[in-house]
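Q: What would this chain look like folded?
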Amino acid sequence: MLSGSNNSDEKLVYDVINYIDVHLESMENLSALSAEFGYSYTHIAQKFSAFTGESLKSYHTKRRFEKSNEYLRQGYSVTKVAELMGFKSIHAFSRAYKKYVGMAPREYKKWAEEDKKNLPQPAENS
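A: My prediction, written as structure tokens:
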């Protein structure tokens, strides 16, 4: 039955990834996964690591900051992004962002805006 067990574990991991991606902004913490999937957090975290080679916390953190970058590139204020991503304060968000991304969110936003201006424009066919 090992193979059947692997399939259900694989489905659980896939479902967890999907759930995190869809509920990134509304999930207060990863323990919500236990209630959602009916397994202990430890069980989910172990299966996740076994299949992805990445910890559940690390995946969740990575996705939060990828989503933050997306919002910053779309022109959202740093304050609004901090709020959307569930941080208690802009200061907590800025500290966490700088630690993870390597630059302050305002710097990233400025860099992304400059980068947009410097993108090559499509050539017109004459």
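The longest helix spans residues 2-22.
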